[in-house]
Amino acid sequence: MHLIRTVPLTPLPAHTPSVFDYFWTEDIAVGAIIGISLGRRTVPAVVLSSDDIRRVKLAVKSSSFELKKISSIISASPQITSAQLRLAQWISEYYACSFATAMKTVAPPFIGRRGKQLQLPLNTGAPASENQRVVGTLVLTQPDTFELLARKAASKSSGHILILTPDITTASHIAHRLHDLNPITIHSELSAKNYFNAYVSTRSEKPEVFIGTRTALSFPWHSLAHLIVEDPLNESYKSEMSPRTNAPDVARFVASQYGAELTWCTPSQSTVHHHLVGRKSIELSDQKPYWPTVQFVSMPEERAAGNTSLFSRRAQTAILDAYEAHTPLLVLSPRKGFATIARCGACKRPHLCATCDIPMRWHRTSEDMLVCYHCTAFIRVPRQCPLCRAGAYAPSGIPGSQKLATGIKSLLDRFGFSIQNIPILDSDLVRSRSGEQEILQSYEHMEQPMLVATSMIFPHRYARAFITIIVPSFDALSLHPDFRSQERLIAYLEKLADFTPKEMIVQSIEEQSPIGNLANRDWSSFYETELIQRKQFQWPPFARLIKLTYKSPQRIHVQREGALLADKLSRVIATLGAQKTTTLLGPNPALVEHANGIWRQHIILRTTLSSARLREILHYIPPPWSIDVDPRSIA
Q1: CA–CA separation, 369 vs 381, rounded Å?
Q2: Among 429, 433, 431, which residue's Cα sits nearest to residue 172?
Q3: Where are the alpha helices (DSSP H) in 116-204?
Q4: DSSP annotation string for 436-495
Q5: pTM of the model
Q6: What is the pLDDT of residues 253-304, one digit of tens each?
Q7: DSSP-derived secondary structure letter, 615
């Protein structure tokens, strides 16, 4: 008789038990998959340990529960390696989720299925503490220099190389550039057969090049020698579901597990990077030599000179020049649709969504429509404002991609130039990868190639180039109003430079650039000012942030729960003597407080505590509060 310790492969609430004991007549290998009864259902589980019950007889007798027999053995051989178990444990501890939820995230989707069983050695990698902590090298790259770096790594590596990408489109373009190396791609849209084959390939002793999204980090690597993280600041790396992991942070732990070399290939630095480089905590290599001619245009000055167009006089000239020279032109739109607001001409109030209490966006199709991006409600534009019943609605606010395309066409028409419909690349008009390709192909077949696109264009910087780039609303590019807003503007400019334009025209509502000298790509003064401010207000890298969110259909319920938890956490922090190292901000309404009939409220924890001590505080957060460690935004 054996005592079998298990973790179920099903999400469980944070801070609830995730390890359960059962018995079986025989020994079962660690990492094997079994079926266990959990409540009223049977779920798969991973074996953590198997002990002869005679050795733990005293513990079994003193337990307060009845030991149950496991339901079935799904796979007697190990299907989960020790490195995967350690990764799940680290995710559980760092991101404050249950071990079961983390294990479900790490385990492959085909686990336990017939015909999908592997013969895996249990012991792979080594505990992170046994390896020297991997810091990595920060390399500023453009597509060409990134390709050279990847090829150099492949030529000298004695083991597997994993190139981590934020999205499938970027992975596809990099795979195309490195096609002669026969890279193996890993992402969630692979067929079940190809996903399984890629999973098995990571066990090969032959060095291979893998290109994958964040799901690749949980694979059972045989000999991972080099991990290259492309664009580590990309917000797509942050998971929207529990556990809310950030792939670059997970990559650092995975590299430590396998003793792999770690390289961060980024289009731009962050303030945190600048801080680490200044402290010599990380090595910086600038392999991004190209920077276009950048012209900063203050739109208030344009308005004062009598120009009421969407485009500055320099931008208008650039559009006309591109048309006549048949050179590729990109106009980067900060928003989808036609305009961000439908405003009444009389009372000046915007039209709000009936269920979300936020302004609806103006969209122009066969007829003008108002759309809510949170609950997907849509209506025809009302003929009259229902509030004042005196005025009609007109598009207002930040111009979207549709309005910019219309503005380009109107400009060309005014000068007697004809052009077919200008392709628009944004997520409203493109709902699939094939649709995205159709838009780009229509752009390529234009006699005068012009494209209006949102940030969806950025993954294509590995495959396309533009001669001229216009940014009509530079200030509106950053979506989240928090302490990282201006830092994101630098990232946008650096990615635009990857398209190797000869000229970039940047329009702003400011009289001067908020991020420094655009002409010579000098961000140092901006970073230094940022670090002074962040140290003063204790923002990263000088503290960690944890965002707690509560949602409910009833506003009063949200407000009551927010006040109760804030009071509870204040007392916990005082009891632990952590008042000097941990600050509570809130509770405060979310930036979008009411959306789709649900009210939202946040509490922000700002702390310099270690992860172990922080868990003592997070342990007191009850469901259904969600915990987001190192959030993408605090709004």
Answers
A1: 5
A2: 433
A3: 143-156, 168-177, 192-201
A4: HHHHHHHHHT-SS-EEEE-GGGGGGGGT---SEEEETTGGGG--S-STTHHHHHHHHHHH
A5: 0.93
A6: 999 999 999 999 999 999 999 999 999 889 999 998 899 999 999 999 999 9
A7: H
CA–CA separation, 633 and 635 (whole Å): 6
Expressed in angstroms, the distance from the first to the final Cα of the chain is 54
- 339 and 396 in contact (C-beta within 8 Å)? yes
CB of 142 closer than 8 Å to CB of 498 = yes
Place of tokens 């307060």: 64
- Going by pLDDT thresholds of 50, 70 and 90, the confidence category of residue 56 is low
User: 582 by DSSP, 3-state: which?
Assistant: strand
Rounded distance between C-alpha atoms, residue 9 and residue 11, angstroms: 7
C-beta pairs of 47-51 under 8 Å, 24+ apart in sequence:
47/4, 47/5, 47/6, 48/5, 48/6, 48/7, 48/19, 48/85, 49/4, 49/5, 50/2, 50/3, 50/4, 50/5, 50/24, 51/2, 51/3, 51/5
- Report d(CA 113, CA 94) in Å as an integer: 30
- pLDDT tens digits for range 545-593: 999 999 999 999 999 999 999 999 999 999 999 999 999 999 999 988 9
What DSSP element (H or E) covers 528?
helix 524-537
pLDDT in tens, 235-258: 999 999 889 999 999 999 999 999
